[in-house]
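Progress note, project year one: complex with magnesium ion.
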Amino acid sequence: MSIERADVLITSPGRNFVTLKITTSDGIVGWGDATLNGRELAVASYLGDHVASTLIGRDEERIEDTWQYLYRGPYWRRGPVTMAAIAAVDMALWDIKAKRAGVPLYQLLGGASRSRIRAYAHASGTDYSALANAITGYKELGFTAVRVQTGVPGLGQVYGVSAAGPGVRYDYEPAKRAADGSAATAPSEEMWDTHAYLAHMPSVFGKIREDFGSELRILHDGHHRMSPIEAARFAKDIEPYKLFWLEDCTPGEDQTALRLVRQHSTTPLAIGEVFNTVYDYQTLITERLIDYVRSAVTHTGGITAMKKLLDFAAIYGIKSGIHGPTDISPIGMAAALHLDLAINNFGIQEYMPHNAQTLEVFRTSFTFDDGFLHPGEQPGLGVELDEEAAAAFDYTKAYLPVNRLTDGTVHDW
Ligand code: GCO
Ligand code: MG
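Model obtained:
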């Protein structure tokens, strides 16, 4: 058998997704997620204009060989566009292999290492009472872990805080279309003040511990906004509140910045949603500067590469915390869940459910029950894209925001 077709599909059921469909000569279809939020068409072109024709006629069973062919072959390597394209091919080939074997993908990854996957939700609020209300809502849904993001006095829209008001929100999406819903022509801009944030945030964790006790796993995302010394002091200041993790406290490209944070604090650290390969983690893992690997399967070269990365992390006692926002399509999410179930060093899974429109297009079989996820028992990844439903949602350009300090300086978003 061989690969007969490789088609790139772009659909926008509420938000933009790029999907690769690989069809074999005997009619098996495999799906891969290639979505790169705000830069979708670059990956679609990489796949459609440069990769698709090279796949035709290849033996679809040779996943490792195809991965190396796409990674080493073009000479230019790494980066989010390349690695999202490779990830999509890799996921689709694993989907096909598992469908041919008639088993859910996790069986080919070594079988289940656990019966369920602990998930964390995104709780946010413009002020503490809205945040507490959201946490309560997620606890009622069974969540034992929540990521908390809150407004900062004096600032407007702050990263991670749903503009839609208090309560359980499944619709937070920072990539914006134009105000009337048409294609955006430029990113919106947000304002940021690290000084105000650092002064405010520790008291929020204090209140959460007072109101919700020590049981709740509290996570927080710094979204790359602190300098190394700011992050070190912050991680130290919040030690009494015993966070499950502090995510992306410093800019992602500077691995050694985390040495400083580590020297000063025992707050567990997670990083990696903007990383693309194991090499972005080499120092972090071998020097044990992090506790959780945050890569998305979609942005890190797929299942083949993630399995190796997580096995490497395991040797150093580092666990998984796979990226799972709604800019990962349900296909990428399913890939994460099969890995989560199979590996020994699972930590936690981010879960931000997709909206009803997205789920009309992507038919999923993974389940959420009382705070825990499971990939389901359908052969393959367990997600099928309904092409007819997908065709109803045209691509509409949206941009992630740009961030500026209060004096106008462009800052990390
Ligand atoms: C997370 C992330 C996301 C990113 C988003 C950008 O921890 O889930 O920080 O919310 O901001 O993936 O497209
Ligand atoms: Mg994050």
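The first strand starts at residue 3 and ends at 11.
The two ends are 46 Å apart (CA to CA).
No further modelling is planned for this target in the current period.
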